[in-house]
Amino acid sequence: MEQTFIMIKPDGVQRGLVSEIMGRFEKKGFFMKGLKLQSVERSFAEKHYADLSSKPFFSGLVDYIISGPVVAMIWEGKNVVTTCRKIIGATNPSDAAPGTIRGDFAVEIGRNVVHGSDSVESARKEIALWFPEAPINFESSIHSWIYE
């Protein structure tokens, strides 16, 4: 089983979209292995977005992520990284298909509601950063109803 990191950004938290977003991943058949509501310090946000530090929007992105609480999550399942990215939708909400999280809830690229790891390697790094205590290790009783 693969794991991914998903973060509901401050706009998603402030708008009361947490349960709706979590529900989409649960309904797909993925299993939550970690969950935190937290405020993000600037240095931590800079570390999380270090790969974007040379981009002109980096400072604004960091300011946005530290502007309010976020919900950090670990989700597990087959092909979870790719599938969650499809559920989330395109980074630019105007390119995101209806039915995706961003297609349904976001208007501006700078307020696009949710972050999802873009690769298995990124997921490993992000999970290690956000969940140094490691994910919860359990198998849901409905696992066999979802996976062969």
TrEMBL record:
Reaction(s) catalysed (UniProt annotation): a 2'-deoxyribonucleoside 5'-diphosphate + ATP = a 2'-deoxyribonucleoside 5'-triphosphate + ADP; a ribonucleoside 5'-diphosphate + ATP = a ribonucleoside 5'-triphosphate + ADP
InterPro entries linked: NDK-like_dom, NDK-like_dom_sf, Nucleoside_diP_kinase, Nucleoside_diP_kinase_AS
Domain Nucleoside diphosphate kinase-like: 1-138
Keywords: ATP-binding, Kinase, Nucleotide-binding, Transferase
Gene3D superfamilies per record: Nucleoside diphosphate kinase-like domain
GO biological process, alphabetically ordered: CTP biosynthetic process; GTP biosynthetic process; response to hydrogen peroxide; UTP biosynthetic process
EC number, as in UniProt: 2.7.4.6
SUPFAM superfamilies listed in its UniProt record: Nucleoside diphosphate kinase, NDK
Broadest EC class assigned to this enzyme: transferase
Pfam families xrefs: NDK
Binding of ATP, residues: K9, F57, R85, T91, R102, N112
Coiled-coil residue windows: none
Source species, domain of life: Eukaryota
GO molecular function, one term: ATP binding
Cofactor: Mg(2+)
HAMAP family linked to this entry: NDP_kinase
Membership in a protein family: Belongs to the NDK family.
Name recorded for this polypeptide: Nucleoside diphosphate kinase
